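Methods: example folding runs. The two proteins below were folded one after another, and each record is reproduced exactly as written to the output file, sequence line first and structure-token line second.
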Amino acid sequence: MDHFESTTCVVVGGGPAGVMLGLLLARAGVDVTVLEKHADFLRDFRGDTVHPSTIRLLDELGLGEGFRALPQSKLGNFKLPTPDGEVTLAAFDRLKAPYDYVAMVPQWDLLNFLVDAARQEPQFTLRMNTEATDLLHDDGGKVAGVVYRTRDAESGVETGTGELRATLTVACDGRSSVLRQRAGLIPREFPVPFDTWWFRLSRHADEQAQLASIMPRFSGKEMLLSLTRKDFYQIAYIAEKGKDAQLRAEGVERFRARVAGLRPDLADRLDEIGSIDDLHLLDVKLNRIKPWHKPGLLLIGDAAHAMSPAGGVGINLAVQDAVAAAQRIALPLLRGTLGECELASVQKRRWFPTVVIQQVQLLIQQAVFAPAVKGQLAGPPSPLVFIARHLPWFGKIPALMIAFGPRPEHAPDFARRKPSAARNPA
């Protein structure tokens, strides 16, 4: 090993959960080091939805005004197409302003913004190009940090290895978590019938409305969902799981024809899909582990529970995990009294919303996605259409679930900063 170092808390993974946790702990005065294996945050088609629960949290942290200045677009109501016209399933316009929309913000902009805020705290350290490869243990078997390797930012060539010892190690390294594997924690997998292929198409000037609704399209065994960005559409093609090899073998012309069949209005720009390599496959998973912790180790976000893209809640649920964790571990870390009971309390707090949201996603899979990819769904389920059409107030319930979830978190007192008067949270 080239280096032997120590910190109070090492957070592995510089995604929204990891960076948010680092920011919160640093504001509490905890020495925290975040390890990110990439050279930057510039990776396309990561989750870019920032829901009202996260926007409110940023307001409470005094970061709301800066967040709203980031390049973004706003998503409004979620609508369903029917033979008799559109119906609104999730009515965000029924929620109280300013938390009545979902923001679409490039994840790299959000992460850079949070890192800039965290770097104002002397206790915060971010190490890019640093990949955790294994766990360290003390003589009693407790996790005591990580083994890592570093790479050159330009060439990707390994430049060194080291050990970073810590009182607490937090795994925020995603649904393919290396630390989860090293800890011997195996997630319970739920069946998922579909995968998603992401791509983008430009928006014409006359289409660039500030607030746009979301409406899926169904045809045969296929679905298409478009998210409205500032100057392009971020589009999800949804089909049965395991179809990736077939789609790529068919080639780009056939794929363009598939998209044209679902969205004829976009046929004039389908040559922007230059090759089949422009499709970014999301191998959809839905799982969770139990427990989320071992002595000296805590897992949150996708490392603890991978979510379906249904509702776009994954990032926001991970951020909520980070807030709940910071609330429960910051002071014990400062006092040197952190034990498994505090780690268990994080899971206890977040287990209920995780299970509830995953059960809702499983129901959506059974009612919509599974029939759709089998060619058994020509449109949205009729009972859902009946409820949405005849009980307009019902639209607020799905909107609240997507916006805040069943147990939204608030910023800990130690992390709050006074927001500007114009952005004072409700």
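Second run, written to the same file directly after the first:
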Amino acid sequence: MIPLHGKVIPLKGQGVDIGVIKISRDPNAHPVLAADCAFISNGQLPASKFKIVIAQSNVNPRDINGGVDLQLPFELDHLSEGDVVSIRSDNRLRVLFRKKSHQNSILLTERCNHYCLMCSQPPKDVDDSYLMAETKELIKLIPEDTIEIGFTGGEPTLYGDEFIALMQLVKNYLPNTAIHILSNGRAFSDIDFARKYAAIGHKDMMLGIPLYSDDPDQHNYIVQSENAFNETVKGILNLKSLNQLVEIRVVLHKQNITRLTKLCEFIARNLLFVDHVALMGLEIIGFTRANFDQLWIDPYDYKDILSEAVHILTSYGMNVSVYNSQLCLVNADVLPCYRKSISDWKNEYAPECVGCTKLSECGGFFASGIQHGYSKHLKPFIS
């Protein structure tokens, strides 16, 4: 697990509100570049004038003749060239983008019009528009050759036209980057909003939209919102009528597992034209902890249902992936669709996994799953 936030130590009085800034470890950086970067020192001062100088946790600032503004806590020593962070006057540092990672996900808001039983980012009714402001600055600092980035919430489309403007900015700065946006899809039931989104014209921008049951009442219960099913399906239909990329995401848990095959039949018969279907294991964090007894089911106990679900979708020629699962807890017929999907910054393995010969191929666990419970049927592969 890689920490993405922490508190820096101010060395010149109060903290400094730096805002969004790129990290550099090159003491000889070009002066124009240096002026827009925070330099992380491992014991030397840079030749050029950087916006701010930060000492690594193991460096004594006195040993480098002053000139250091902040000091990192040890858990953030991993920051490397090209990463982008936000530093605020309360001394909070948040990592917004890691250049070496292919799994960067950008939080746009914690507000949401759903209240999902298993939400990993419980919604807050707050003004967090600073996240949008930071993201606008961040986009300008992300390298154009970045392979993929994601946007998440909360519900990003609650920004309305400002969300559309942000995605236009993304297209302008990152025209060749694959963009993945998590949304409940309901905003796109408004065909005019769907048309504005389609008009952005990014060649590789996909919406990941959850659908948890073929039964409207069950879906609405899981997301804790009336009429959600109808608006979500209408949103998907509108987007696909405009030739937009859409992924359906299904989180697997006790509330919907018995109808999973019926949901897959519904998708295959009514939404065959979507671009991807992801069947996803449960992340034990956020509301999932509070609703654990309602939601938790051992993946071992539904592995045959998962096999049947994958078979239904693939038999219709659909593009299917199985996310957030462990290799030893899925049947062999699922393996062609199995993906190592958990983001590196929150990925861990259980003690039982030690010695497994397929560890490098296995998706492992969310760190929260290690802490709060996982299958008792783990069986490491031994060659």
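Comment on the second run: The mean pLDDT is 94.
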